[in-house]
Design brief:
Layout lengths: L1 H10 L4 H34 L5 H25 L2 H24 L4 H30 L2 H29 L8 H21 L21 H7 L1 H31 L3 H56 L3 H26 L5 H32 L4 H37 L4
């Protein structure tokens, strides 16, 4: 433990109390994403069974499911303190996995269960990660987030490396359905990390009391979102990201289906992308992300991703090949996890608690998945109109440019909001 703390002291610019909280946050994100990446290959396998043409329907089903789940989440946030509602969310997911395992074990309508599981994993990944980052935004200040979120994000990346290794290592010795049990164990370990993090939540000048419960209706964040140009800007940022990511994802799926034959070869292609992305991201997050956020600010860090898309989409237009699409996919996901996503999470640190837990969840879950569903059908419309993949990429390039400009604008707005908060906190922060 002492050697780990010494290593962390060299890598993470923080006080001893901050490092303890950062280490438990690292472990929390590590186990959470390890569990998700155990499930992700199973989800992709079940999704492919439904056919590539059905993906827009799957995206739409995910969005509809989120519309039902969102008010339930809002009620949970309203009625329970943080120390209770976060474990309840993850325990609920574990119960869901146990039910899926039982249905698959008994072979009850496996095709329907497979489709439901595909949608469920998409919902799980978004809610579980949104809860995590809401907790982080509530626990750390903007300045602490700039210094620590890169390191904490690296915990998720390390878990994202472990998850596929577990799946590959155990998929032959265990039936695929039994990997759900592994995911359940990892999620329960994540709950333990939440409990320890609450006990170590002294990242400010002394212990922090449990925040008061949030009031308001489940959709209280919607009027706030409409009234606040800052929140609206974040929502548009997410929608533009969704547009670019969805166009690239569908181009990737279509190209792999056309040029890579056989389920095994396709699976290895997707696994290679995940491995490359996670290795690059892990190395970058540990030593570069925090320094980049501190040196250049959130706007520049957030703008790195749309800049990659601008160049990448133009490259796909000029050379619409599988290799170019896969390289773009690796680079954009790398920059997303290493720079853009930590910067986006810092955007939320200057909000009040209700905005952090409700407006943030509304944006990151409903706006995000609603945009996915919409733009999945937009891609289909492009194809119906006879547009080739290169032309679709060309249309996406100016969208990426607008997204880049918005990133810089939001970065400046975040810095303005952070100054009075830092002044109130005093030099001890």
């Amino acid at each position: 433990v002492a050697s780990l703390q010494r290593w962390t002291a060299r890598v993470v610019p923080a006080t001893p109390q901050e490092r303890i909280a950062a280490l438990w946050s690292f472990a929390y994100f590590f186990t959470l994403l390890a569990g998700y990446y155990v499930l992700r290959p199973l989800r992709d396998q079940m999704g492919i069974m439904g056919g590539v043409r059905n993906l827009p329907w799957m995206f739409t089903a995910t969005f509809v499911t989120l519309l039902v789940a969102q008010p339930l989440y809002g009620e949970l946030v309203k009625k329970l303190p943080r120390a209770r509602f976060i474990p309840i969310v993850y325990h609920f997911f574990v119960v869901n996995l146990a039910l899926f395992w039982l249905l698959l074990k008994l072979q009850i309508d496996t095709a329907m269960v497979a489709r439901a599981f595909y949608v469920w994993v998409a919902v799980f990944s978004l809610f579980a990660v949104a809860v995590f980052w809401s907790f982080m935004a509530d626990l750390f200040t903007a300045d602490q987030g700039k210094r620590l979120f890169g390191f904490i994000g690296a915990g998720g990346t390390a878990g994202a490396l472990l998850g596929p290794v577990i799946t590959i290592g155990l998929s032959e010795s265990l039936a695929p359905m039994n990997l759900l049990i592994v995911a359940m164990i990892l999620l329960e370990v994540a709950v333990f990390c939440v409990w320890r993090l609450e006990r170590a939540a002294t990242v400010h000048d002394g212990p922090r009391a449990e925040p008061e419960r949030l009031g308001g209706s489940a959709f209280a964040a919607l009027p706030e979102l409409i009234r606040s140009p800052y929140l609206l800007g974040i929502a548009v940022w997410i929608a533009l990201q969704s547009y670019c990511a969805t166009m690239l994802y569908f181009e990737q799926i279509h190209m792999v289906a056309a040029h890579v034959h056989g389920a095994g070869a396709q699976t290895r292609t997707f696994a290679a992308i995940d491995l490359a992305v996670n290795l690059l991201t892990l190395a970058t997050q540990v030593v570069v992300t925090g320094r980049l956020l501190k040196r250049f600010g959130t706007g520049v860090a957030a703008a790195t991703l749309p800049a990659i898309y601008v160049v990448g989409f133009l490259a796909v237009f000029l050379m619409p090949t599988l290799a170019v699409v896969l390289v773009l996919q690796v680079i954009q996901r790398w920059f997303h996890f290493a720079f853009s996503n930590p910067a986006r999470q810092v955007f939320y640190t200057v909000l009040n608690r209700e905005q952090k837990y409700k407006a943030k969840n509304l944006i990151d879950v409903v706006v995000y998945r609603g945009s996915d569903a919409l733009f999945g059908w937009v891609f289909d419309i492009f194809q119906i109109l006879g547009l080739k993949l290169g032309s679709i990429a060309l249309i996406a390039a100016p969208v990426s440019a607008a997204w880049l400009i918005l990133s810089l604008v939001l970065g400046r707005a975040q810095e303005r909001r952070a100054k009075p908060l830092a002044a109130r906190a005093g030099p001890g922060e």
